Amino acid sequence: MTIQSLYQNALQFATQKHSAINQVVLGTNLPHVVHISNVAMEILIASKHTEGSNAYVLVQVALLHDTIEDTQTTLEEINANFGEAVA
Predict the structure, then answer these.
(1) Is this model's pTM higher than 0.85 or not?
(2) Residue 57: inside a domain, yes or no?
(3) Is 24 helix (H, G, I), strand (E, B) or coil?
(4) Enclosing domain of residue 42
(5) DSSP 25-55
(6) CATH number reported for the structural domain that contains residue 42 in this entry
(7) Is residue 16 part of a domain?
(8) What is the DSSP letter of 84?
(9) What distance in Å separates the CA atoms of residue 6 and residue 9, rounded to the nearest whole number?
(10) Does 87 reside within a domain?
(11) CB distance 23 to 70 below 8 Å
(12) Which residues pair with residue 24 across a beta bridge?
């Protein structure tokens, strides 16, 4: 899979989870996807400057980082959909 397709899969999953609970960026009316997209962008930039980093895993982790904390998503669900490294 390409990093673009991994990004899109994780973004769609996270967006569905956060939208289901109408989660917004704190202090705004912006959907939570804005926050996770910004985190993913920062991770992608940092990974280019960090030797040994795995952008394929890190971008998915960045996009999914709030799903277990903020939604009904389980670690098992993340593992089943994105693999053990991401979970």
Answers:
(1) yes
(2) yes
(3) strand
(4) 3-82
(5) -TTSSSBHHHHHHHHHHHHHHHHHTSTT--H
(6) 1.10.3210.10
(7) yes
(8) T
(9) 5
(10) no
(11) yes
(12) 31
